User: Fold these one by one.
Assistant:
Number 1:
Amino acid sequence: MPSPDSGTAAVVRPAAISAQGWGWRHSGRATQAIHALDLDIRPGERVLLLGPSGAGKSTLLHALAGVLGEEGDDADETGSLLVDGESPRARRGRAGLMQQDPETQVVLSRLGDDVAFGAENLRVPRGEIWKRVHEALDDVGLKSSAGDGFALDHPTSALSGGQKQRLALAGILAMRPGLILLDEPTANLDPAGVLEVRDAVGRCLDKTGATLVVVEHRVSVWKDLVDRIVVLQPGNTSESGSTPAVLLDGAPDAVLAQARDMLIAAGVWVPGYIPATRARSASVGSGSTAGDEVLLSARDLAVSREPARRRGFKTIPPVPVQSGLDADVLAGQALTVTGANGAGKSTFALTLAGLLAPVSGTLSAAVGLSDGAGTDPFKWKAQQLISRIGTVFQEPEHQFVTGRVLDELMFGPKHLGHGEDRVDELLERLRLGHLVDANPYTLSGGEKRRLSVATVLAAHPRVLVLDEPTFGQDANTWAELASFLSELLDAGTSVVSVTHDREFTSVLGGTEMRLEAAFQGPRQKAGAA
Amino acid sequence: MRQELNLRGNNALLTRANPLAKFVAVFLVTLVLALSIDLVSASTALLGELALFPLAGLTLRLLWQRGWPLIIAAAFGGWSTAILSANSGRVFLDVGIWSISEGSLTLGLGFMLRGLAIALPAVLLMSCTDPTDLADALAQKAKLPHRFVLGTLAALRLVGLVAEEWQTIGMARRARGVGSHGSPVQRFKAMLGQSFGLLVQAIRRASRLAVTMEARGFSGGQRTWARESTYSRLDAWVLVGGAVLAGAAMLAAQWAGTWHFVWLKQG
């Protein structure tokens, strides 16, 4: 532990933020991303920013970090936004920004170098940099002397998502910023990673007293750490009087009490509220009913994402991340795969889905599913696969194959030659009707998720495999998805999902299969939830 | 794949040398070999290089694992030179247009050894040089613009991710019914689509990384360096070693009378 006066506290001067009628239009867009923002944040205040997608939260954080747009772009700025009374662009380094995707928060390949990167750019002298690096790594709990700490030359690629975000925080702290900006810092993390990052942020704020602005729609995670909640609303730039960007502003409990219903309606995860979902119908699900048809069964399965490797002329099979797995996928039943990060949950699910070849063991499709295509799903042609097993990936964009929402939905049915009639029903059921002509890449996060589910279902698979379907989703999309899946289950579809989400698991019911971290290895059996 | 580029655990002597010194040494050797096609200079250089491998922490097995495509390419190059080049001296084999004579065999062998002697230093250099150290040396010692050098270094880290992303997108598209089955035209179209998907993701990721770097104050302006790139006495030895190896190869060929410049016609 550093002594109190040698710490960052002595040097960090918290920043003040002042916005007056501030608005920003991105180049190439017709309307402003954020409009008429009036907001004052005092030095050392900790603010949680809430609001529906499209309210301009990320735009505001980018602007405060001084990285919004470049000179010469045809972007438009109105009003003023100042950090410590100056333009944020001129004060780059005064604020540190953390974004969502952990992979892009790491710059260099060695732990210590990555922390030093920002300080180097701010022209901190060499001796001072290493002092700050050690201190920052200590503050976020990654120092080599700590329990789960690492050496300075530890490869950053070997860190988990939560550790990468903590590393990013260390890199920010080494710059000694007066303002810390977090843009959904935990949206891509599992529950343990979320707490890791939140606690590290809390410790660092207590120590430095820096100002904090965090955007995040899981309110319960940040509520106790902030002392103010600001709710933004999408700009309305019609001539008949524009609405201000700030809808509500105040102490956390007051804002939550005052606007609870409004926030719930906007899809915010309000503490203590679990969105209502459709219940599974009572007739199915108790396990021993006559309708228990096995569609897929895995016996002594070993799985790996790595293909077999070539070493010169030799072929070496990959080391399985999990082995000895037994599981049955039943019609009209959910199978939930849970476990720690890196336990091989997704790898197992992708193998079940016929997308990865098993390293050893067998995966066989029953006649009811294979329908004449053979028992090994990995050997099925792509078109045989999609009408039997549908897979929804964690990142919806990976699955987009056209430039228009309607084409995207018609893609499967067109290639199969049937099922086009179901597309309208899916459009309506997943509220995509108004978006048929939009480009899939331009949709919001929730819309992309709904579209990716709809496109896979358009091919009518009997088994649906979902990889972390609820990651980063707002409460409304979450509830819709859970209700829709419960409906599909009642209709006889089998749903396999990889998830950390306990509420989601309990809505779907069925069987939970827990995978332990790989190196503990022996046999894992599916047990009833 | 990423692990293989990682130097942790390699404590060999040459890992401690300045990358720039190693670069210059390798350049000297390569330059000499590029000047002459002959057996003697190439085999002298090759023997010298093999003797240096332990200093870079390389074993023959590691060399084969990392360099096998280059080794096979060199062998094929030598073979095709042997059967296709003009005959001189005794003819060993004659099958229609393909023939192997004393002269063409020597030329082919020389070609192969030269290929190896030029390719292996690259393998040697890569296996004892950390990209971060190389970037530091290029920016601090060679005074290349750091914006470019560090940008490339950061992008290099994403290259490992691209391989993973390619696999994921391939699976994600198979799950949409775009398969790698069918006629060559269909496969080509599927590949094109997958490449496009990869490109979109790569650009998005790169622009997020650019924002991260910019938010940490990265620009073309002045900066300090946490890691100082330094020269030591070892670097002088590396340079001397490169010069000696290059000189030895040249002198050996002169002495044996086999030296001739590549652009002179074979006589």
Number 2:
Amino acid sequence: MANKLNLEVVTPTKLVVSDQVDLCTVPGTEGAFGVMANHAPILSTLTIGEMHYEKDGNQVRMAVSGGFVEVSDNRMTVLAEAAEIADDIDVDRALRAKERAEKRLQEAASGREDIDIARAKAAMARALARLKVAGKLT
Amino acid sequence: MASLKDIKLKITGIKKTEQITKAMNMVAAAKFRGAQERMEEFRPYAGKFSGVMGQLASTANPNAFPLMEEREIKKSMVLVVTSDRGLCGAFNANIIAAAEQFIDERKSEGKEVAVGCIGRKGHQYFSKTDVEVPIEITDCMARVEMVDARKAGQECIRLFLDGHIDEVHLLYGRFVNVVTQKPTFKKIVPISAIDLAEGDSGEEESGPKATYIYEPAPEEILGILMPMFVNVQIMAAMLETACSEQAARMTAMDNATRACSDMINELTLAYNKARQASITAELMDIVGGAEALKG
């Protein structure tokens, strides 16, 4: 057990994952990075994207958005505003969100000024991350 | 004395009220459990969050952040978290009274006050007074969502950074236990370094602190996390108020049910007395009639 990493993924609504894992990769703001047991303490903010962890050769993929990650003493805590395991992702909802964001971005490009581009882009990124993790991105 | 029929009608009426209050009590009990669960689920997140904030604050120089700037207070805002619905005893009235007291105190010091409202009851009250209400978020307490907390938090931060408001206090119904809910103030903007440090000492880890690798630099992380910290605090307050609300409703409805059964008891007693009296009167009539015939 000494070579395992204690991973916890926490969101405001629930504890999504609490497990002993071999490897965990997260999308840091300055680039994705992997963490294994005995990693040096690190604190990094997260961007919207895909994270995955490996346990006994099995890989679990998750979509996360916003938040940060802290590693110390073989404990890794991911605090995200939202985090979903691949199987739990609502693909229809993500698809709808993607279409909506696409439409908004197009409208903004064609000159409408009342659209919050940053928000639409963030929504787009979230939808894409979910779809990618769910394996539904064509 | 009221007639027999009147009393009977009254008893049936009160029985019906009793049924309703009993049902509301049970509904509140069920909702209370849900609210309490959500409150507890949020705790690890909030705890971890303030832990990390404390740690960062001890590394980075907190004075460099506009959100921590302590200015001379010309105008303060109180963010009042109440419930959306009534029928929960004096719960909302207590919170509003505390807010009024806060406003009066500030006004007597010659400061201006604005009120932000989360929850419909507070908004109903304050929209009728002459205080400024820059934030109103209603219909959010049945199911507390991060989106609403974020909306309120962003607005607070914007007002603060624009220089429109110099401090924000949060007022919510703190959940002490099922029978006690206490209106409680908490200053959330500007974020004070002491608050952050407290979050750190609350963490369970002890011993020598490891030096962290920060990505990006600690100052930058803190800059990103600070607005989120405000949201997290508002969220926690909302969850706690939602929980308190249901607890208050449970107690209120329990009291109402008990008052109903007391009234039913009294009325039944009165009813029986009246019935007895009428029987006695009738009996007297018959006896009197029989005596008269005999004579």
